[in-house]
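Dear H.,

Thanks for agreeing to be a second pair of eyes. The structure we're designing against is below in token form, covering all 473 positions.
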């Protein structure tokens, strides 16, 4: 089939405002990715003799956990902020908080300042990772919603790559300087973007919603779009959202179960453990083929490329296929790492095959990001109705945080006394569980409107399209 280049250019042009909003609205994620990966290069520095801060091993473990505790404590503020002040203002407030955290890290001369900074970063990251997917889902055309929602993870991995590239080789203050510059850029640009039409209509600000739609979707029939949003919100407002509805309403209950498995699944597949401890894990493997600092840079680069690939393909192949391929492939890589460390712990000479952990980590990074590491944040923003979106996405985010804490604790408590292979066996088995769950329980949301997705979750039947009109059968 021959594609009309004029039509293609026109398509790119009509979506450009949405792309600009998505890009500038997720710049914070570069800084957040730097924060997440910060411990990998800096824990070895902090416990070394060259450190400017006296640090114990137990304190470095708290540096990892403190970030997630901050995120957990930030949940009540997140619930209140995204509905009271809006998605856009919540993102801007989160960016200001992250900026304060970077300033604290740059001037820290005691561990207390690092703990406070990590705690604040966790709170800000929690708010941003709830507000950003809501912003993307509510302003994006459904044809590119998956791609735009995936940009946030591309930004995260740009951040991870930056901290792995600069962390081991530059002075302590350089990384905070870069992180601060990123959030200042977002504050300077994203401030001028509109709030989402959905939120504005939800607050009965129709004229502002009209102006937002004229910016985001100048190609559509504005009045028709406003009427559709109004109808959808009216249906959802008829049953005003209550916290207990997450359990009492079938579609919400199913959405919560889905997000609990997907969001905890990311961490129980070893993502946080590997990202925060990559240098130490690779050094423990005793590989003679590549320095851990160089391998970390390659790992971050692979994950970035994989995230870009996934964001481009998620609207083509759908969510379920990518999730299943990703979870099975990641599980196999984790089991390979587990077997390597298991053999090493028994005294077997593994030096000739010490390339296995490095290759497994790289393949893991590639496959994890095409599905399990990308799709959940897209699905999260799609499967909750507007009147429950703040509650639902915040609870889903809580599951993400709790999964991170559990994953880190499993690693820290098992790796020392039992051997590093034990937690990796657990992470690998969890990957197969996620694949089975996805196949039998998660509906495909590709190309569906937010209203159609609610119909699927309620079990009202399949969506059939006739001349671009959706009909529930």
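And this is the sequence the design step returned. I haven't edited it by hand at all.
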């Amino acid at each position: 089939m021959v594609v009309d280049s004029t039509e293609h250019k026109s398509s790119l042009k009509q979506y450009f405002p949405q792309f600009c909003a998505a890009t500038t609205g997720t710049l914070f994620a570069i800084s957040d990715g730097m924060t997440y990966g910060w411990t990998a290069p800096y824990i070895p520095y902090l416990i070394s003799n060259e450190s400017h801060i006296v640090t114990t091993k137990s304190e470095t473990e708290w540096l990892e956990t403190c970030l997630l505790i901050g995120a957990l404590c930030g949940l009540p503020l997140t619930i209140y902020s995204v509905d009271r002040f809006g998605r856009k203002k919540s993102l801007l407030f989160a960016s200001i908080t992250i900026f304060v955290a970077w300033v604290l890290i740059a001037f820290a001369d005691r561990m207390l300042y690092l703990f406070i900074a990590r705690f604040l970063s966790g709170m800000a990251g929690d708010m941003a990772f709830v507000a950003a997917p809501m912003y993307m889902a509510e302003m994006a055309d459904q044809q590119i919603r998956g791609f735009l929602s995936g940009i946030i993870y591309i930004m995260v991995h740009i951040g991870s790559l930056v901290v792995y590239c600069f962390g081991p080789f530059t002075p302590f203050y350089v990384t905070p300087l870069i992180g601060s510059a990123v959030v200042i850029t977002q504050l300077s640009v994203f401030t001028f973007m509109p709030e989402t039409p959905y939120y504005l209509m939800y607050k009965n600000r129709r004229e502002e919603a009209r102006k937002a739609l004229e910016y985001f979707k100048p190609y559509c029939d504005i009045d028709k779009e406003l009427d559709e949003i109004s109808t959808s919100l009216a249906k959802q407002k008829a049953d005003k959202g209550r916290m207990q509805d997450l359990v009492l309403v079938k579609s919400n209950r199913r959405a919560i179960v889905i997000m609990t498995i997907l969001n905890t699944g990311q961490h129980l597949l070893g993502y946080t453990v590997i990202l925060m401890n990559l240098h130490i894990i690779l050094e423990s493997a005793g590989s003679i083929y590549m320095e851990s600092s160089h391998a970390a840079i390659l790992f971050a680069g692979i994950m970035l490329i994989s995230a870009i690939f996934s964001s481009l393909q998620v609207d083509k192949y759908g969510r379920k296929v990518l999730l299943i391929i990703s979870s099975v492939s990641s599980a196999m890589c984790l089991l390979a790492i587990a077997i390597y460390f298991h053999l090493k712990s028994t005294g077997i000479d593994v030096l000739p095959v010490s390339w296995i952990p490095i290759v497994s980590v790289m393949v893991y990074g590639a496959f994890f990001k095409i599905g399990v590491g990308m799709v959940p944040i897209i699905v999260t923003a799609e499967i909750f109705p507007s009147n429950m979106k703040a509650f639902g996405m915040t609870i889903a985010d809580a599951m993400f945080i709790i999964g991170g804490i559990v994953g880190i604790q499993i690693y820290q408590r098992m790796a020392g006394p039992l051997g590093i292979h034990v937690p990796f066996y657990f992470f690998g088995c969890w990957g197969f569980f996620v694949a089975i769950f996805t196949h039998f329980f998660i509906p495909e949301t590709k190309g569906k409107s937010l209203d159609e997705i609610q119909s699927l979750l309620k079990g009202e039947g399949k969506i059939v399209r006739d001349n671009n009109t959706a009909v529930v059968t």
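Two observations from my side: The chain has two domains: 13-193, 242-465. The domain at 242-465 is CATH 1.20.1250.20 (Growth Hormone; Chain: A;).

Warmly,
E.
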